[in-house]
């Protein structure tokens, strides 16, 4: 039996990052990583494999290169059982690997709802598996009527990428909520996203629920709960993901309320020698410490940097998930961090918002000049930033990360209004019109009005 100081199970965003972090923090330890697949998809790039990137084969992480560069042994295999007492992992081929510290980074699988007919040919959930995705790509190249279930990030990105390469395909997205991307943006941002999709010829059926997938053997139509039917020879399910917890559960580790592997703030499971990170791990919200079902690659790598650093000494603490998203629809970038105004009100916060829109160049006639809007959500009493949304110029994809930094440091509206920014005519809005700072100033004005009116 081969024994390593550190064994990581899972070779995607969380597993690779945990192994590389462990190497940086513990130079002399032996580290091995076991993963199922030879070719590792870049998960966030999957929608683009159906369009601009060209194929799942072009959307790969250089996993072996990263591991060998960092002195991590790479094992291809499927771990079928863990024995926490003897500190061993058994592979499906019978091989046994020992460890001092174990990191579970077994990720998630797409949610497949128990809708009648959802096993028919032509229906795909988005698995992070190159062969499966190649089959989906082939089906997409043949299809005439594509129906996407779920108007979240995966749904809208795949719809756009399908349209980009196959303009004649009829594309519909069915969403049971009232707006597209509703779980992440306030209504004004959702409407902008919906307009962008409609302009590209993508049909949206909102407030609509799929009742059944119908057809002889393969999918022919989708029956909605209101009785209407949609012609469809391909369907893609983009409605969420469930944590891969079978190994952990069977080994006797605690499972949390959202069905992730229970971890503490150091990413340690109920067995102190076992850590978990990424989509398989239970999460809590940064805002109220309550369980959170968010699953993002950016969260997975953040948690992996905590788990990897803490394996033999406590170095880092998880403050909980903020939830930072970005995407681009047409030429318009959308970003969100933390709570929307709607979510903050639902959680009982007394809030004030500030919005500022300006061209991201000065003067605005400089090449590349594009409007960029920032909306910030503050708690009224203590003025602390709890959320932000951006839309417009593609620089918004990075600006939302600044918003996340401000949230994580619990900055107030005044802190942001006094933020020292670097501006340049060819790169940003002018310092007078800088959207982030001005949105905070506008919110301060709103707070003063609110105070004046009691
Ligand atoms: C289409 C799509 C687009 C996305 N876009 C974004 C985005 O833009 N931004 C963002 O932040 N997030 C995005 N996400 C979410 C992101 O992909 C996940 O949060 C991320 O992949 C989680 O990484 P992970 O390493 O925890 O798990 P996974 O990526 O699920 O990887 C789990 C790994 O564990 C291995 N494994 C599991 N069980 C075993 C076992 N028993 N033995 C051996 N190996 C095992 C798997 O083979 C795999 O290598 C997207 C997801 C999808 C599906």
Molecular structure report:
With 454 residues, this protein is an alpha/beta fold. Helix content is 28%, strand content 26%. It is built from twelve helices and 24 strands. The protein has helices spanning 13-25, 46-49, 63-69, 130-142, 153-165, 187-199, 246-251, 297-310, 341-346, 396-408, 413-417, 435-452, and strands spanning 2-9, 31-35, 72-76, 79-83, 88-91, 96-104, 108-110, 123-125, 145-149, 170-174, 203-205, 210-214, 221-224, 229-231, 234-237, 241-243, 274-276, 283-284, 291-292, 324-329, 332-338, 351-359, 371-379, 385-392. The N and C termini lie far apart (71 Å). Bound molecules: flavin-adenine dinucleotide (FAD). Flavin-adenine dinucleotide binds at residues 9-15, 34-37, 43-44, 46-47, 78-79, 105-108, 126, 128, 154, 244, 247, 278-279, 295-298, 300.
């Amino acid at each position: 039996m081969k024994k390593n100081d550190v064994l990581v199970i899972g070779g995607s965003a969380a597993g690779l990052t945990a192994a590389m972090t462990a190497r940086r923090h513990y130079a002399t330890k032996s580290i091995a990583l076991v993963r199922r697949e030879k070719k590792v998809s870049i998960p966030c790039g999957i929608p683009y494999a159906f369009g601009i990137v060209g194929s799942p084969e072009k959307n790969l992480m250089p996993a072996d290169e990263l591991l060998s560069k960092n002195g991590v042994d790479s094992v291809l295999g499927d771990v079928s059982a863990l024995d926490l007492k003897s500190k061993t992992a058994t592979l499906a081929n019978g091989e046994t690997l020992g460890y001092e510290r174990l990191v579970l980074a077994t990720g998630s699988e797409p949610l497949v709802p128990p809708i009648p007919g959802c096993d028919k040919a032509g229906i795909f959930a988005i698995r992070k598996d190159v062969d499966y995705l190649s089959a989906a790509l082939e089906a997409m190249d043949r299809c005439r009527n594509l129906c996407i279930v779920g108007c979240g990030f995966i749904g809208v990105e795949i719809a756009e990428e399908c349209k980009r390469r196959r303009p004649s395909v009829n594309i519909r997205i069915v969403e049971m909520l009232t707006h597209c991307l509703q779980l992440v943006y306030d209504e004004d941002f959702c409407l902008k996203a919906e307009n962008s999709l409609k302009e590209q010829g993508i049909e949206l059926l909102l407030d609509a629920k799929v009742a059944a997938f119908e057809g002889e053997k393969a999918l022919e139509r989708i029956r909605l709960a209101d009785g209407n039917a949609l012609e469809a020879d391909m369907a893609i399910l983009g409605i969420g993901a469930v944590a891969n917890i079978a190994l952990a559960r069977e080994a006797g580790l605690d499972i949390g309320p959202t069905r992730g592997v229970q971890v503490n703030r150091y990413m340690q499971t109920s067995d102190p020698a076992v850590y978990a990170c990424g989509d398989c791990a239970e999460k809590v919200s940064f805002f109220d410490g309550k369980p959170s079902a968010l699953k993002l690659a950016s969260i997975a790598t953040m948690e992996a940097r905590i788990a990897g650093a803490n394996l033999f000494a406590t170095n880092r603490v998880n403050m909980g998930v903020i939830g930072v998203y970005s995407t681009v629809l047409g030429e318009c970038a959308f970003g969100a961090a933390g709570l929307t105004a709607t979510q903050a009100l639902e959680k009982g916060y007394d809030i004030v918002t500030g919005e500022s829109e300006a061209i991201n160049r000065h003067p605005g006639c400089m090449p590349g000049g594009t409007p960029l809007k920032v909306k910030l959500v503050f708690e009224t009493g203590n003025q602390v930033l709890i959320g932000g949304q951006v839309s417009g110029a593609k620089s918004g994809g990075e600006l939302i990360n600044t918003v996340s930094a401000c949230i994580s440091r619990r900055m107030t509206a005044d802190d942001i209004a006094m933020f020292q920014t670097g501006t340049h005519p060819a790169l940003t809005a002018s310092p007078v019109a800088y959207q982030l700072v001005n949105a905070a100033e506008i919110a301060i004005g709103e707070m003063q009005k609110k105070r004046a009116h009691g």
